[in-house]
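Case study B.
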Amino acid sequence: MDLSSAPEFTVVGADWQELPDAVEDNLMVINMGPQHPSTHGVLRMVLTLDGENVHDCQPVIGYLHTGIEKNLEYRPWTQGVTFVTRMDYLSPMFNELAFCLAVEKLLGITDDVPERAQTLRVLMTELNRVSSHLVAIGTGGMELGALSAMLYGFREREHILDLFEFVTGLRMNHAWIRPGGVSVDVPDGFEGRVRTVIAELRDRFGELNDLLTDNPIWIERNTGIGKLTADQCFDYGITGPVLRSVGVAHDLRRSAPYCGIDSYDFDVVTETAGDSYARYVVRMRELEQSLRIAEQAVDRLSPGPVMVADKKIAWPAQLALGPDGLGNAKEYIQKIMGESMEALIHHFKLVTEGFVVPQGTVYAAVESPRGELGAHATSNGTNKPYRVHMRDPSFVHIGALPALAKGLQVADIIAAVASMDPVMGGVDR
Amino acid sequence: MTDHPRMQVPDVSAQEKLNQIEASVSITLDQRTQRVRDRLASAFRLLTLEEFRGELTAVTTPNELLALLQFCKTDPELACELLTDVTGVHWPGGTREHRAQETTGWPTYSVEDEGRIDVLYILLSVTHGHRLRVRVSVPDDAAEVPSAVEVYRSASMLEREVFDLMGVQFAGHPRLERLFMPEDWVGHPLRKDYPLGGVAVQYKGATVPPPDERQY
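Model:
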């Protein structure tokens, strides 16, 4: 879009009437964002408007670009988890899982990851899906003026973040899933807490449902807005709830299962309308499916290791909670510092150098709350990634905004963008 | 909650699609890969097919790239509806240390390389559930690949990212502009000859060098 020759107007107050008279073809280019309460973070859109009608909508991104992929190339593989978890900040568990699955695939240890670690990964990611969808629905409501939806959504999400904090020590950016397993086993009393939270959330989802699903304003604002067809979705590479809202039952948990998730009993939720409302309904129904999986995962938890047996890969996981936070357990420190010099050398080498990963290129993907989240990892046979590319669904979905926004009114763009649920941390990386 | 009238899915076509997808999932990954392999080998005789960790990579040239992508999209056997990812890997020129794979002891040997950029396209078939990677290599001082936007619209954003960060020109792309970096940025940050930058961290009596200068 060449705007260099277009006249510029700075409307300051009293000159509103002069503006439409001065514009020849009735088309105005208006900037929206990046600092805007309803652009879902720092998304900037350059809108070409005819009155209230949108002719064109060009997304401008990059405001959260942090160079994570470049940074990964200078640290050992395990430290990469600390970076990728910060990309899509609403689904940190999925980022970690996608990256770790890619590293495990390169190492060829996909089948060696212990059962308990796999179950815990499934449990935590599905809980993460619930918390992410709650934010999507909550902020989506807020952006359309339903402030109580946001309050309810965030209140429920808090239960899950408390659980995450209980296990990993952090509410976000956990770096808990590691190549080969998970960094630390869950504390005592975890199963009971998860069951309580699941029961409570079931109850609370009813409230959120009562608040929005039959709400006439919610229906009016969302029905028929941002409609996509299945062909458009395929063309723009759209996956996840948005693809399922047009009636395509595509879910990587079924078609390319990871961590044994295909052995759990759950439904792939679809709708057919393909509009904002259908996407809301898909997310709302997926909440229940994720809780189902989480419940089964808790039932399956049986004692066992949470890290691969290979000591050359397994990051020391003998952690314990001390007065100053999570750290190496006293007995473990006792062993490496007082008893076994070999164990100390091994610990030191593994923690500073990491492990060597065979050369090759792999792609591992998980079904994140927003769609296919993939990690494309290339190793040149050293202890650091040669190149890692993260395929983030939000980024690809942003590309469909021009198609989504065409013909809408300005106020409807808010609803359409909110229903796509892009997370800018994932878009920009 | 799911028995709510607005939350019902009586749609038949979606269910049919689901059944179709489920049927293909029952085929194992190996069989799927083999099927894709056979189909591609019969359609493109000069195509090199590589397999690593169960993933199939078709190595092609910039000239044949679009024909291959078009074939993958339209052929009912392959039916790759989605272009999920485009990315690049930069291999700068010069002498490189190689580690032999699948051997014990990791012997290294050095090779002389022309600088190149691998551009990788990852395709996904929703109907059949398989994945396919297409790779083209171009010299890094004249990296140009035809744009796949005409075949897959999702390539528009993905190629812009590769252009911005790796400096690959996609001929025929409607809007090949900077995406993450500012418009007036010089250089392409994900190339290997582009420095990471950073400062040393000082502690009492010692410093930790910046990440790109650390020795481990």
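DSSP finds four helices and eleven strands in chain B. The remaining cases will be described in the next quarterly update.
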